[in-house]
Structures are given as structure tokens and as C-alpha cells.
Write a structure and sequence with these properties.
439 residues, alpha/beta, 6-stranded parallel β-sheet, two-stranded parallel sheet, 17 helices
């Protein structure tokens, strides 16, 4: 199932216009759903409506251990439970791994015991876990290892000549790459950050409010993004949409919300409400909120360092996008800026010949001979927002996906100290998943 359509609308058409479903059921007798562990409710109900009472030949293919889209409502229950109840299928488990080396399979089974079985004649492969002093040392180590591997030119376990095209560096989120990118540029190692099919959505509360509030400011009748904004703020949505002062009302409600830093979010809403739509001064706007966030970091009693860190990073992303927008001469207004983002006009081209940097989600379904998995410390991987057992289990799935992208060799690193965006050093603990793979 792809993300290029609306399953809700398609489902509604099939239910309200039965003749439409009959056309498809007359043409297709068999249905195969790949990556079925990532189905959400809307997608599953669409499949059921499409099949109706006539199509019984349905095959779902998926790996519950690779369910990593819970934030989008996905659940492996649709594959492992609902499909079984509704279609009574014959079940086949295929655990033999024909792709990965013994080293990779070993680590995968540490994360998900018994999930992988070595195929006959599987290669030994390589695995290495490296603790680095800080992010600078981690970046240097990765660059040194890349150069060392490339100088080998050939290895019996790697088909063809070894090149940057054989490699990928994977991290839990794109901000982990910042220090590494600096070192790659200094050493003139060509690279590209792999982008997903869709624009990367913000993950901090601040980033979500910034993104969604701009949309609502441009179109107060946008109840879809408006409801998402209310959900992020943990406030009740209004009974009607279209009021030009919506963000002002949301700001008042946000002040008493249980979200992190409610006063900061309220100030952000008020600032977006007051912004000049035709000539927005985005650099000044970003500088103002950079200072506000940094002021919050002075309070040593705060336990939300990671949330503030991500807020600053996503604010910097916003400003960088504006700079690119202006440099490309795409317009001046906030509306033109939003359109440029939506159309992907601010994204750099992907260089297929260089080293690939990729988050776990954009690397899913792909593979490389050599994988570097970096930033494996608590609060980064698993993500700092994962607290419930369900969330931690999805983070474990993310780690499993990251490891199994490697066909032959895998190198895992983490910094023992990180420098926060406001300059203070923070000691790091190795990821709980890393501890398991070391055992």
C-alpha cells in the first residue's frame, strides 16, 4: 500500500457506490498486499471493502518485526490478527535469511531472538561496536573507517569493487548526521542525505506547532491541519473553522495545557498570528525564538533537554529552508514559502554515486553491503519520546530494521558525550539495544 492516495476517500466510494467495487472485483480475482505489517485501519478497511464477499484469494506479506510506522496508525495486528480473523488464511513463516551475513544475523537475533535463521553457505561478515568520546570523535572514526575500507578495493565478501555506493550511514533521525556531514565535507567525501517520499514531519511539540500553525494562519478554514494542531497542543478543537483569530484563541488555551513548555508554544502561536503574510521577517522571527529556547536551557531543573534540543534543530531547519527559498528567488510571501516546501522545491538533489546518509524510515526496504549505524545512545535511539512498552517495542523494530539493512558488514557507534545546541556537554549512555547486541 502506498501513501499517494487517500484510503479514507477510496473506502467511502466503495461503500457508497457499490457499482464501483463491482468493476474492480470483475477485473481482479487475486490481491497481494506487500509490507502488510505497516497497514493502518483506513488501509485495512479499504482492502476489506474492495474484496467484498467475492474476492477470497488474498495474500499478505510482511514482517511484524519491521512495523515502524505506529505514528501513522500502523499496527501489525492487521496482519497477524485481523487478517486471520477475516480471511482465515493459510500461514507460512519464512525465517531463513538469504541476504545477510552471519555477523548481521547474530545482531538481529539479539534484538529479536529467533527471528532469523542462517541460510546454508552464508558468509561470515563483519560486525564492530565502537564507543567514541564525543560526536566529533564518532564522525572521525566513521570517516577513517570508510577510507580504510575503500582502500581495500576488493574483498571476497563484497561483489565487485568496493566504493561509496556499497555503503550507507543510518541514524534514528536526520539531526544525528550534522557533525558527520561537516567531517565528510572537510575530507571531500561526496555524500547525499536520502529523502523520503514525503516531507519529513517535525517531531518536537515546538516544530509541530510551528509547521501546523503556519498552515492554519494561511488558511483558517483548514480544519484538517487545525485538528492536528489542537491534538499537538492537547486542547479542544473549535466547533467551527474560518476565524482569523484562531491562533490567538489556541494560544490562550495552550497556556494551561499539559504539553512541554506551554508558554513557549503560546508565544509561538501569537507570533505566527501576528506575522506579515506578504513580507514575513523570518530571520528575525527565528532569532527571537532561538533566544527564548536557549533561555529555557539555563534552568538546570528541566528534564526536557532532548525536547529543547529537537525544538532548536527544527527551528534551524525552518530558517535554513527560508534561506534556500529566498536564494532560489521563489517569492517573498509566507504562502509562496509554504507552497515551495509542499512542492519539494527546497530539497537538495540526491547523489547516487556518493555515500548515502539515511534515517531508518527512508532506508526501509533497501539494503547495502556495508552499514554504519551511528548515534546509538539513550534518548536518540531509542527516541527520547518512547516511554510506553508499545513505543519501546516499535523503537526495537526500528533498530532491527537498521541492522538488517546490512548484507555483509556492519559498524555501530555511539558518542559518550554530546554537545547540546546551546553549548553545554551532556553525558550519554549506550542504547539499551546496543547493550543487548553486546551481550
Amino acid at each position: 500500500m502506498t501513501s499517494s492516495y487517500s484510503p479514507e476517500i477510496a473506502h467511502r466510494i466503495l461503500l457508497e457506490q457499490p457499482w464501483c467495487g463491482q468493476i474492480y472485483r470483475a477485473k481482479y480475482k487475486h490481491i497481494c498486499i506487500d509490507e502488510a505489517q505497516d497497514l493502518n485501519k483506513a488501509q485495512y478497511e479499504f482492502i476489506k471493502a474492495l474484496c467484498g464477499d467475492q474476492i477470497k484469494s488474498v495474500m499478505m506479506v510482511g514482517d511484524p518485526n519491521q512495523m515502524i510506522y505506529g505514528f501513522n496508525g500502523s499496527s501489525h495486528d492487521y496482519l497477524c490478527q485481523r487478517f486471520v480473523e477475516d480471511f482465515s488464511p493459510a500461514k507460512f513463516e519464512l525465517k531463513e535469511n538469504y541476504r545477510s551475513s552471519k555477523a548481521v544475523i547474530y545482531l538481529a537475533n539479539k534484538l529479536k531472538p529467533g527471528s532469523q535463521v542462517e541460510a546454508d553457505f552464508v558468509l561470515d561478515g563483519r560486525k564492530q561496536i565502537e564507543a567514541c568520546q564525543d560526536e566529533e570523535a564518532e564522525a572521525r572514526w566513521i570517516c577513517d573507517k570508510i577510507n580504510e575500507i575503500i582502500q581495500q578495493l576488493n574483498d571476497a565478501e563484497i561483489e565487485g569493487e568496493i566504493s561509496l555506493g556499497n555503503m550507507v550511514v543510518i541514524a534514528r533521525n536526520r539531526f544525528v548526521f550534522l557533525t558527520l556531514e561537516k567531517h565528510l565535507q572537510e575530507r571531500q567525501i561526496p555524500y547525499s542525505l536520502k529523502k523520503g517520499e514525503r516531507q519529513t514531519e517535525p517531531s518536537s511539540i515546538f516544530g509541530k506547532v510551528l509547521d501546523l500553525a503556519v498552515r492554519v494562519r494561511l488558511n483558517p478554514k483548514d480544519w484538517v491541519d487545525g485538528k492536528k494542531l489542537c491534538a499537538a497542543l492537547e486542547i479542544q478543537p473549535p466547533t467551527s473553522w474560518g476565524d482569523n483569530d484562531l491562533l490567538h484563541e489556541f494560544a490562550k488555551a495552550a497556556c494551561t495545557s499539559e504539553i512541554p513548555f506551554p508558554e513557549l508554544q503560546a508565544k509561538l502561536l501569537e507570533a505566527i498570528q501576528a506575522i506579515d503574510l506578504d513580507q514575513p521577517n523570518i530571520p528575525k522571527f527565528c532569532e527571537t525564538f532561538k533566544k527564548l529556547i536557549e533561555e529555557l536551557t539555563v534552568d538546570q531543573s528541566l528534564k526536557e533537554d532532548e525536547e529543547l534540543e529537537r525544538s532548536l534543530q527544527e527551528l534551524q531547519d525552518f530558517r535554513k529552508s527560508w534561506t534556500t527559498f529566498k536564494r532560489k528567488g521563489l517569492g517573498d510571501s509566507l504562502s509562496a514559502f509554504r507552497n515551495a516546501i509542499a512542492l519539494g522545491q527546497l530539497v537538495d538533489d540526491y547523489n547516487l554515486s556518493g555515500l548515502t546518509l539515511s534515517t531508518v524510515h527512508t532506508m526501509k526496504g533497501l539494503e547495502k553491503d556495508i552499514v554504519f549505524l551511528m548515534g546509538m545512545c539513550e534518548g536518540v535511539f531509542p527516541d527520547y519520546r518512547a516511554r510506553s512498552s508499545k513505543e519501546i517495542n516499535e523503537e526495537r523494530n526500528n533498530a532491527f530494521v537498521a541492522v538488517t539493512r546490512a548484507k555483509r558488514w556492519i559498524y555501530i557507534t555511539y558518542p559518550q558525550q554530546r554537545i547540546m545546541p546551546w553549548g553545554s556537554a551532556k553525558q550519554q549512555h549506550p542504547s539499551c539495544f546496543l547493550q543487548e547486541m553486546r551481550a
